[in-house]
Design the sequence.
């Protein structure tokens, strides 16, 4: 049996256990939902109907009282509306008889309702007759509001009896709801405990199966790992003793073959390889400029001591992407461009100079990145050299300062010479001969050319210092060559 089949069987058992537990839980949840729906359907509707009848009776009693006080027409309208509402609630309760005591209560409500309706009708009829018999004039309204025969007191008694019947209906259904809720809670607790026991059993069984399968799979891997550790420690004669025929056994056989090949290589070319590796590392470490060696994915594989002064110890940075350790994004960009194009990348100009801090002072570096390939031309990685040009930058700065200073200092005597030549040409010092005038004209042209050169030098120093930007424009090549000639 291969490793895939073992894992598949273990997963299928777990899935089957989950399906059983899920089905069991879902079934009982559906039953609990049915119990809850039955409580609402069987008793809640009756409670709502009873409360509706109770409220309707209160409003009917108020309407009768209004009629007694002389507001007969509004009271009749209100009474008709409330009787319709009461009858609707009563019909709803009569159609939802679910408890043994409900038929008797419903019948009692029907009987007491009919009695109350009859008494109210007689009472209102007597009130109407009493209003027609009473003469109009002062005091007639008070006379009409009298209770003929004391029937209002009997109406109140009938109303209280009917309200008591409605309260009895509400209480019966409320007690039934409480009892059913407690019963449902007990069933839910039993189902919860049962589900918990089943889940615990499945967990224990699954844990045992997982431990069994893990032991069958991990034991050969442990044997293989122990053999690898022995070989890494220098015991190249070690062999993995794995007798299974699954993928782990195949891996162990391949590992043993690899170990045998390593033993052969060690006896043949290992010495040469070690010498070549040590020579290469010594050459890189001896370089004055920082060197970063990366693999084909941009991961750092080597830092020489000069690079460690900038980016930190080599052991902490091995394996990290060059973008994580580089203090300037241009380094990672150059490595990425070299790896993608497989061509050298060299930064030129002031914009390509990287300012990096070494031993607390800022140095200027020029970036050069070159791809590494094996004998067959396959890309192995890239070598990044940071050329320290701090001294060159300093020399360039001194040169620029000298040019700027010299140009500025020479302008003062040149201005004096120009002014003197101008005064002589204007014959401020006396008349000139033709030959003298020609010589002074040539001298003035040379002074003007010298002034233009100094202005160009000053402009160049300002551009190098970043104080001004060069102004580019088109010029005729013929005019340029002619002026130079």
Sequence:
């Amino acid at each position: 049996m291969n490793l895939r089949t073992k894992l598949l069987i273990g997963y299928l058992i777990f899935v089957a256990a989950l399906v059983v537990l899920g089905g069991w839980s879902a079934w009982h949840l559906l039953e609990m939902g049915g119990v809850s729906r039955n409580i609402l359907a069987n008793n809640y509707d009756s409670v709502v109907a009873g409360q509706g009848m109770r409220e309707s009776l209160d409003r009917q009693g108020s309407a009768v009282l209004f009629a007694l006080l002389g507001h007969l027409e509004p009271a009749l309208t209100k009474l008709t509306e409330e009787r319709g509402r009461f009858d609707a609630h009563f019909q709803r309760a009569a159609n939802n008889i679910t408890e043994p005591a409900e038929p008797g209560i419903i019948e009692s409500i029907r009987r007491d309702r009919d009695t109350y309706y009859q008494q109210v009708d007689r009472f209102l009829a007597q009130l109407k007759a009493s209003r027609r018999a009473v003469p109009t004039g002062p005091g007639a309204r008070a006379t009409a509001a009298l209770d003929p025969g004391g029937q209002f007191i009997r109406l109140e008694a009938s109303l209280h009896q009917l309200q008591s019947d409605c309260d009895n209906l509400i209480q019966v259904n409320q007690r039934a709801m409480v009892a059913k809720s407690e019963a449902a809670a007990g069933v839910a607790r039993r189902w919860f405990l049962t589900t918990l026991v089943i889940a615990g059993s499945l967990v224990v069984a699954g844990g045992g199966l997982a431990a069994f399968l893990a032991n069958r799979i991990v034991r050969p891997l442990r044997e293989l790992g122990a053999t690898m550790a022995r070989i890494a420690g220098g015991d190249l004669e070690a062999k993995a003793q794995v007798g299974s025929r699954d993928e782990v056994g195949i891996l162990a056989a391949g590992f043993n073959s690899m170990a045998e090949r390593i033993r052969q290589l060690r006896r043949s070319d290992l010495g040469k390889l070690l010498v070549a590796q040590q020579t290469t590392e010594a050459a890189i470490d001896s370089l004055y400029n920082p060197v970063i060696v990366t693999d084909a994915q941009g991961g750092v594989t080597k830092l020489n001591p000069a690079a460690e002064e900038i980016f930190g110890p080599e052991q902490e940075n091995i394996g990290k992407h060059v973008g994580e350790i580089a203090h300037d994004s241009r380094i990672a960009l150059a490595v990425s461009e070299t790896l993608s194009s497989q061509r050298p990348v060299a930064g030129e100009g002031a914009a390509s100079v990287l300012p990096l801090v070494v031993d607390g002072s800022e140095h200027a570096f020029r970036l050069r990145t070159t791809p590494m390939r094996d004998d067959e031309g396959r890309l192995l990685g890239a070598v990044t050299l940071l050329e320290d040009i701090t001294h060159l930058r300093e020399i360039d700065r001194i040169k620029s300062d000298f040019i700027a200073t010299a140009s500025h200092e020479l302008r003062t005597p040149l201005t004096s010479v120009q002014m003197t030549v101008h005064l002589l040409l204007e014959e401020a010092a006396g008349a000139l001969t033709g030959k003298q005038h020609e010589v002074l004209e040539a001298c003035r042209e040379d002074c003007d050319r010298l002034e233009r050169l100094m202005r160009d030098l000053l402009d160049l120093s300002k551009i190098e210092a970043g104080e001004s930007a060069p102004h580019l424009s088109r010029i005729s090549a013929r005019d340029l060559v002619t002026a130079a000639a």
